Amino acid sequence: MIYLAALVVLATLVAMASGRVPAVLALATAVCFAGVSGLAPVPALLAGLSNGGIITVAAMLVIAKGIVHTGAVTRVTWALLSTVTSAQQALRRLALPIGVGSGLMNTTPIVAMLVPAAKELEQNRGINARELLLPIAHITTLAGSVTLIGTSSNLLIAGIAAPAGIDMTMLSFAPVALPVAIVGAVIVYLTAPLMLRGQGETEAATRDWRVEIPVSGKALAIGRVAADFGIDQTQQYALDAIRRWDADLDPSAAIEAGDTLVFSATESGVTALWGSPLFGLAEQRLYRVSAGSGANGTLRDFETDGGIRVIAARTARSLRDTEVRPGGTAFVTAPRQSLLVEQPDVALWERAAGLSPQPAKTVFAVAILIAVIVSASFGLLPVELASMTGAVLMVITGILTPKSAVRALDWNVLFILVGSVALGAIVVESGLATVLADAIRHLAGGSVLLVVIVFALTTALVTNLVTNAAAASILTPVAIGIANELGINPVTLLALIGTCISFTFINPFSHQSNLMVMQPGGYTSASFARFGILLVAGSLVTVVIVSYLLLHLQMRL
């Protein structure tokens, strides 16, 4: 059985590393084979469906979506970057805020918000996004490993360790991960200007869309001028006028409730404006529509009382006075999709952007996140219950709709985590974990330092070849066995694994954040390898030193 289990695990890892087989399919195949062949009992193989760590991951995805929906991340990003003049200055300003944010919520929305911000800096101020995006991705990954809820792999490790009586708390990973994150951030800061130089993209785009954005009474921009927020002139859009009643005011005038801001924009600028939290827009989606063959009249005819409102079209005239031509396109907003179906002049439509940000709900969203962190950190509630309660409150308080909460769940990630727990069950139930633990113990000869080195190198290798979830599921039970045999603190050894799992710096396909910045930054696989090798080496040296000193100190106490 042990040899068969080793073959199944190895084949699964090879299939995942090849990239030719979806990770979910590879894991599902392993689970089915293990169940049919009796490698592991079915309850153990399906334990991931009730694993506390995975439940927490799902809940935190919803909470992160709620935070992003308020526009809080966008506003903080703009405040930090509004006056920067170089990539190094931007990194200095971003490192601490994104580090803290990555420890409190999923890193994906943070990186997603920073990508357009970096591109805007490149277009407007000549700050090369190539020198900024990859460092940001790596810093968020390192910082996320500091807390229990910062990464899905930490939660998975905690979920696998819990049945063994090992309690991984909110800051159990911090003694190892925090020093590594600090050293890693310094390495990133020093090496990025030297190793990520390149010609930035300065795409010229025509601002041929007229955009009319209404300013509501709850808008953040009221009483301020557009230049205060950097929305007067960008590469994607420019403010042409402020319409107040029937008069067009200069763009430098102070914004008041009831105004309509008239922009000329690129197509991507239309969606960027809709995603701004400054205007207090109604909580509706933005759609791109095409006029049918029988359409005539003006865009005014598209609009309905309390329903469809035209936001943008390719025209130099007022939107409501612009003639409709069959096949012509426009951006509209509507409280529900059925209104587009019922509009006879609309032939085709597609969703162009999500719900507009709702900054008025920022306080509630942040309060929910803080409550989750505090209750879990001080043991007031189990972390899975605290996070689930937070996710439910995001819906009950109206920050998210039930549909938005469901859309926040990344089912591919969740099923990979479930399958990874099953892979760990195969390792444990077949006895393979014991064999691997014995092999490592004999290889290390009882030396704690060698054990630390072996786990650090193995984890970093596996996480760059396959998913971090697979690395966590396989190595966690082995580490627990080694810790019990050598009499060392299992929490520190698991913190070592959780930290090294974040060393996904060499392979661009080993972490979602890498993929998010790859195309916008113009990186290649060689770019990742060249920049990542030094970072991995420095992080490995740091994690070995810190982990060994902690274990040595704990053994003497």
From TrEMBL:
<feature type="transmembrane region" description="Helical">
    <location>
        <begin position="362"/>
        <end position="379"/>
    </location>
</feature>
<dbReference type="GO" id="GO:0005886">
    <property type="term" value="C:plasma membrane"/>
</dbReference>
<dbReference type="InterPro" id="IPR004680">
    <property type="entry name" value="Cit_transptr-like_dom"/>
</dbReference>
<feature type="domain" description="Citrate transporter-like">
    <location>
        <begin position="20"/>
        <end position="440"/>
    </location>
</feature>
<feature type="transmembrane region" description="Helical">
    <location>
        <begin position="44"/>
        <end position="64"/>
    </location>
</feature>
<keyword id="KW-0813">Transport</keyword>
<feature type="transmembrane region" description="Helical">
    <location>
        <begin position="486"/>
        <end position="508"/>
    </location>
</feature>
<feature type="transmembrane region" description="Helical">
    <location>
        <begin position="132"/>
        <end position="162"/>
    </location>
</feature>
<feature type="transmembrane region" description="Helical">
    <location>
        <begin position="443"/>
        <end position="466"/>
    </location>
</feature>
<protein>
    <submittedName>
        <fullName>Anion permease</fullName>
    </submittedName>
</protein>
<dbReference type="InterPro" id="IPR051679">
    <property type="entry name" value="DASS-Related_Transporters"/>
</dbReference>
<feature type="transmembrane region" description="Helical">
    <location>
        <begin position="168"/>
        <end position="190"/>
    </location>
</feature>
<keyword id="KW-1133">Transmembrane helix</keyword>
<feature type="transmembrane region" description="Helical">
    <location>
        <begin position="528"/>
        <end position="551"/>
    </location>
</feature>
<feature type="transmembrane region" description="Helical">
    <location>
        <begin position="413"/>
        <end position="437"/>
    </location>
</feature>
<keyword id="KW-0677">Repeat</keyword>
<dbReference type="Pfam" id="PF03600">
    <property type="entry name" value="CitMHS"/>
</dbReference>
<keyword id="KW-0472">Membrane</keyword>
<dbReference type="GO" id="GO:0055085">
    <property type="term" value="P:transmembrane transport"/>
</dbReference>
<keyword id="KW-0812">Transmembrane</keyword>
